[in-house]
Amino acid sequence: MYKANTQVDRLKTVIFYVLMVFFLFWTDGKAASQSSFAKGEELFMQNKPAEALEFLETATAEDPAHIQAFLYLGIVYQQLDRLDEAIAVYRRILPKGGKETARIAYNLGNAYFSKGNAEFARQYYTQALDSDPSWAPAFLNRANAQIKTGALTEAVADYEQYLDLVPYSEKRPRIEALIAFIREEFAEQDRRRIQAEEAARAEAERRKRLLEEVSASLQAAAEDSKGLSAGIENVQGYEGEFELE
Question: Which of 22, 39, 170, 206 is the most exposed place for a label (fewest CB within 10 A)?
Fold first, then answer.
């Protein structure tokens, strides 16, 4: 009985040490990850993207679920003009962004806009607004993307929504000037359209009158031709047999 108890105690001791070793490795790894992120975050906040980069890359490698680390890393890539890498990072974490979904989608839109892809930028600004309908910067940047894609009506709506959300924005004078310019452009387009339509109607009326005049002239000519003689009405006819004497 004593021997059996001794074996059980030894087994418990072994299990205890195994769990301790596992716990130490786990806590060391977690501490290292937190340390890498903390250093990267500190440098990021100091606006030192090149120095923060290595720590944030390490933090995301050690903890693939650390959304904030990925978000900072994407911003750092953007600051370093490594747009393709920024896009890859944002797209990787966007499906599991949670409460950061709006910010991730917004930054992804910015990255695509910087690359000159206004259509993709507009799509991701829209996704950001779907997640946070009151986020003013997304309205402003989507309006800029709308301008690039030629969707001027939608751009005006987004600019106005931005001004409603940020009534005292320092950008208001420029935005209002841009809205006025767009509306004037719309008015000019309407004027040109109306002028073109009026010119087309006038030309159609002119052609109609010309056709009617030509048709009437031809009709008059046909009527006059009915009174013409072929010069054979008074030719006497002969009946019977014609004989030579």
Answer: 170
